[in-house]
Amino acid sequence: MVLKLHGIPMSTCTKRVQIALNEKGVDHELVPVNFAQGEHKSPEYLANKQPFGKVPVLEDTETGVKIFESRAIAQYIAAKYRGQGNEISPSESDLKAFALYQQALSVEASYFDPVVSGIAYEKVFKVMKGQGETDEGRVKALLKQLEAALDGYERILSKQKYLAGDNVTLADLNHLPYGVFVEQFGFKELLPKYPHVQKWWEELKTRESWKKIAAN
């Protein structure tokens, strides 16, 4: 297999990469990283795969590229397989489209991900890691931040179908893993207040690239 993805199926960041692979119709080998045995913190892993001890990591045996950080991996896949499957990022040669795409990527990384990942940490990972009990006050504050972010999303999506324009891109798709995960913790209840966001969100969840992951 040309592409080897080191990660775990339950990882939101691994799923983010798999969405891109599915959109492009690219086969890959998922190489499980043994978290229970601390493989991700082993000297070999830190030295040769991911210096911060995280997943996923992509190895492209065809080009020799080894890359970490899920958004960077997804962009690499979109660029390498341009012309195959669905186009999920504009060409850099289209200056306006690429600038708006970069803007939309920043929106997700700046206003959405820090909030929903914080909610996920408080509601699930904090207890799982033995770092204390859920701070419901913190969750409430994060949901308020999410509401403020969704106000901005509603302004954008009232004027266009997707965050970067009229075509779906990674800027939209990158929301799915954490967004779906925190629906149960208050995100879903907020959506009816934002009709354009809700329409956008429900449509994203129907994409085959996500349904294939959700089914597993």
From TrEMBL:
Keywords per UniProt: Transferase
Domain GST C-terminal: start-end pairs: 94-216
Entry's Gene Ontology molecular function annotations: glutathione binding; glutathione transferase activity
Domain of life: Eukaryota
Domain GST N-terminal: 1-85
EC number(s) stated in the UniProt entry for this protein: 2.5.1.18
PROSITE patterns in the record: GST_CTER (PS50405), GST_NTER (PS50404)
Substrates-to-products reaction catalysed: RX + glutathione = an S-substituted glutathione + a halide anion + H(+)
Entry's Gene Ontology cellular component terms: cytoplasm
GO biological process: glutathione metabolic process; response to toxic substance
Pfam families linked: GST_C (PF00043), GST_N (PF02798)
Gene3D superfamilies: 1.20.1050.10, Glutaredoxin
CDD domains, A to Z: GST_N_Phi
Family indicated by similarity: Belongs to the GST superfamily. Phi family.
Protein name: glutathione transferase
Organism: Aspergillus saccharolyticus JOP 1030-1
